[in-house]
Amino acid sequence: MAGLILLLHGPNLNRLGQRQPHIYGKETLADVVARVRKVCEPHGVEVKDFQSNHEGAIIDFVQTHGPQAQGIILNPGALAHYGYALRDCLEDIGRPVVEIHISNVHRREPFRHQLVLAPVAVGQIVGLGPIGYEYAAHYLLQLMTSE
Model's pTM, two decimal places? Predict the structure, then answer.
């Protein structure tokens, strides 16, 4: 099986491992990317990763690479709560999106409970830490083999 999965990270996720490790853990963004690649590479699936603190840059990346991708793993960070432009972009691209949140956003501040990307995601993995990325990759690989 050959293919492409996009692995996208929103604002502040470049600081994984340093930012609030009691909430987000000690793994770095590079560690998370390596986890997903380890799952996908034996299947011949390329992982193209991207992180930005700017919604427009993420949208540009999705518009450029999304049409060739078979799926998207996305930790939108705070964009999950207000990223309507990103929501529209994901809906337009029409690829299966798995939304990831390392922490359980439903057990945190009330503003984090509103998830505007949820309606365009095939699923969400919330609160399971970095292993959630691996689960998302396995799910997208399963979708790719059933096509």
Answer: 0.92
